[in-house]
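Students often ask why we bother encoding 3D structure as a string. The short answer is that it lets us treat folding as translation between two languages. Here is a chain of 203 residues written in the first language.
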Amino acid sequence: DIQVIYTRETDVFIPLNERAAIANRNKADLFISIHCNYISVRNRATGSETYVLGLHRAEDNLDVAKRENASILLEDDYEKTYDGFDPYSAEGHIILSMFQNAHLEQSILFATHVENALKKLGKLPSRGVKQAGFLVLRETTMPSVLIETGFLSADTDENYLMKKENQQEMASTILKAFINYKKDVEDQQDAEIANTSEEKKPN
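And here it is in the second language, the structure alphabet:
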């Protein structure tokens, strides 16, 4: 009973706002953006981290958001599309992070399931759930997360993520996280329905 809608199935660039628009047009229940992290100089940073839209809790979160959001520079007329947003400006990201996400609680719930599942998989360390101002998450009208599966700038992560079987293992782990998230959401909805029915019973 799960319908998966891909924003792309080949190696083509899709503008960030169009990725969110695809989800919105299809009235998706959850938006999952999957990436590989990268730092320009190879260092010891390793492992997965899953982001939800929110305030920057640390400078490195801001740096990740800047790197991911800089892909808008590949788009024509990006200044107009994103209202003059500068992907390299700290001020721009602070303003972006102030957008209220009505689905933050469910976004955090799914992100937590993702990192717990990846931690249990045990192939790469989990760096936890974080908040940052990603453009791709800003315009979605449903719970949404951005998963950094690992660092291509770290030998251990790159060697793992380059293998097809490991990519499949990573995808399967994210699916397991989704199944657990879906059960939690449905259980919560059932409980709310039961409570509402109980309230309507006459004394």
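Translate back mentally: The CA atoms of residues 102 and 142 lie 8 Å apart. Keep this in mind for the problem set.
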